[in-house]
Write a structure and sequence with these properties.
With about 260 residues, this protein is of the alpha/beta class. The chain has eight helices and twelve strands. The protein folds into two domains: about 70 residues, Roll (Ubiquitin-like (UB roll)); about 160 residues, no CATH class.
């Protein structure tokens, strides 16, 4: 039997029982076990791991474990230069697109409001979400750690916060999305691009009060919804501006001595 020692840092401790947090975990491992197998067996999805040090050296998920190995497992971090080290996660090229599970409808709506292509349907099954993420190169957003542990899930994020605005702040900080916000460019219902439309073209679809007080409108060609800059727009704009301005400063903890 192989025995290895694991130490998890930062938010990765949230996936562990309280008795195992912020301390060394000595665990028996099968002889053929890899680092990834044991990290997930201890409760941490592979999608949440940014960096792995084995006996003080950068290593990969598929490294076989040897008796006496010491593993330091780190989450994503921002204010630390890790270029010389092997990062275990990479993101799809270009502007990120998302698919959210059934528990994240509020976050999906806010991501669309921020201009990020986000698929969501509370009728999606886990297999559907896994397939969509794989086939379309989307980042899978979930609060289900077992879904994120699936072998074919390459790009995923576990969402820790419960409140949708806090979830948006968390995700923007983790993925550095602030500079990519394109607020109010997508339909909140259809996830399709909005276009500007003349007031006369949508006049019959407007409430009387809106007809009298607003002049600028956008519409979705798929569902025919009309959007204007009302009080809800002002509140949401304030939220998105705060998210865009938030700074990320996550420090890499010191490496434990082997």
């Amino acid at each position: 039997m192989v025995t290895a020692t694991f130490r998890f840092y930062g938010q990765l401790n949230d996936f562990l029982p309280r008795a195992r947090r912020d301390r060394d975990i000595v665990a028996p491992c099968a002889r053929e076990a890899t680092a990834k197998h044991m990290i997930e067996a201890l409760g941490v999805p592979h999608t949440e791991v940014e960096l792995l040090l084995v006996n003080g050296e950068s290593g990969g998920f598929e490294r076989p474990l040897a008796d006496g190995d010491r593993l330091a497992v780190y989450p994503a971090f921002g204010a630390f230069d890790v270029q010389p080290l092997q990062r275990l996660r990479s993101w799809p090229p270009g502007r990120l697109r998302f698919v959210a599970d059934a528990h994240l409808g509020g976050l999906a709506r806010l991501l669309r409001m921020a201009g990020f292509d986000t698929l969501y349907d509370n009728g999606y099954h886990d297999d559907d979400i896994e397939r969509i993420a794989r086939e379309e190169g989307r980042v899978l957003l979930s609060r289900d750690r077992e879904l994120l542990k699936r072998r074919t899930v390459e790009h995923g994020c576990y969402v820790h916060a419960l409140d949708p605005p806090e979830q948006l702040r968390e995700l923007c900080a983790r993925l550095h999305l602030g500079a990519q916000l394109r607020a109010f460019t997508l339909c909140l219902h259809c996830n399709l691009a909005l276009r500007h439309v003349d007031k006369e073209a949508v006049l019959e679809r407007l409430p009387p009060r809106v007809r009298d007080t607003h002049a600028e409108f956008t519409t979705c060609d798929a569902c025919a919804r009309v959007y204007w800059k009302g009080s809800h727009y002002a509140r949401m704009r304030g939220l998105l501006e705060g998210v865009a301005a938030a700074a990320t400063a996550v420090e890499l903890p010191p490496t434990p001595n082997p």
